[in-house]
């Protein structure tokens, strides 16, 4: 009987140890990324966005307790659920492909900091309309640019980037154009300048010729290339796996 009674105690002890270990792992990983960012000689300190796709809310809370406030989500449903569960001073970044029929759900999140993936004038118009009845202040947006030219990636072409940015400034009063975003091609040589990042830097120059008063951020760099992106001038890096570990396959998340 004594042995049977000890099972729940042992179970709770094991759970506590696992939770403590997981919290320490995330905190250590987060601090390592922060330190790595500090070591890069940048004109200004870049913002670290902890990307938590497919990770439980508890993992985000561990990072929050370690001082992290900017978090990124790829899927609208995950963003809606987690933003409702976690502290309201978290600043959320939507970094996935945004479907037009999901714009209202995203715009309704009160502590949404920015949508980083506006990829057309039409998408900007739809998001602007959604914000009109849901937000008291304009919403920050980045224009996503497909700098690698890969068919599987969303984003405006570099040539169209200035026009989309100009459209947002002139026709979308509920949006604030705050930056440009790109996803670099996987497998680029880290010892060389990344042409995708250099392309986004050039896009900003082109936008500034059309909109000289705009001060735009550059959101580029993820776990495998964020240091390379910082050296190229990124002001906003999106790091997930290096902080939270590998994500489970999407098929497993649906079970």
Say what oligomer this is.
single chain
Give the overall shape, derived from the CA principal axes. globular
Overall number of domains: 1
| Strand content range | 15-25%
Strands side by side in the biggest sheet: 7-6-5-4-3-2-1-8
Class by SSE composition: alpha/beta
Largest sheet: 8 strands, parallel
Q: What is the distance, rounded to the nearest whole angstrom, between the alpha carbons of the first and last residues?
A: 37 Å
Count of individual beta strands = 8
**Low-pLDDT sequence parts:** 1-7
Mean pLDDT: 91
Classify the helix fraction into a percent range: 40-55%
CATH superfamily: Alanine racemase
Determine the number of helices (DSSP H or I, runs of at least 4 residues).
10
CATH class: Alpha Beta
Elements, N to C (H/E): HEHEHEHEHEHEHEHEHH
How does CATH name the architecture? Alpha-Beta Barrel
Radius of gyration: 20 Å
The CATH topology annotation reads as: TIM Barrel
């Amino acid at each position: 009987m004594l042995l049977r009674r000890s099972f729940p105690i042992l179970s709770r002890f094991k759970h506590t140890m696992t939770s403590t270990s997981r919290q320490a792992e995330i905190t250590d990983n987060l601090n390592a990324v922060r330190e790595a960012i500090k070591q890069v000689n940048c004109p200004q300190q870049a913002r670290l966005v902890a990307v938590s796709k497919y990770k439980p809310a508890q993992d985000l809370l561990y990072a929050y307790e370690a001082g992290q406030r900017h978090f990124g989500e790829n899927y609208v449903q995950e963003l809606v659920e987690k933003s409702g569960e976690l502290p309201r001073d978290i600043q959320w970044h939507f970094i996935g492909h945004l479907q037009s029929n999901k714009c209202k759900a995203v715009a309704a999140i009160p502590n949404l900091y920015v949508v980083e993936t506006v990829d057309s004038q039409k998408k900007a118009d739809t998001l602007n309309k959604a914000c009109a009845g849901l937000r008291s202040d304009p919403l920050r947006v980045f224009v996503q640019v497909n700098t690698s030219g890969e068919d599987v990636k969303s984003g405006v072409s570099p040539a169209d980037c200035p026009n989309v940015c100009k459209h947002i400034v002139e026709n979308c009063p509920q949006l604030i154009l705050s930056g440009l975003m790109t996803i670099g091609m996987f497998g680029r040589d880290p010892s060389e300048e990344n042409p995708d990042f250099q392309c986004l830097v050039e896009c900003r120059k082109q936008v500034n010729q059309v909109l000289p008063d705009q001060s735009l951020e550059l959101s580029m760099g993820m776990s495998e290339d964020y240091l390379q992106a910082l050296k190229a001038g990124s002001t906003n890096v999106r790091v997930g796996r290096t902080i939270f570990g590998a994500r489970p396959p999407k098929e497993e998340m649906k079970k």
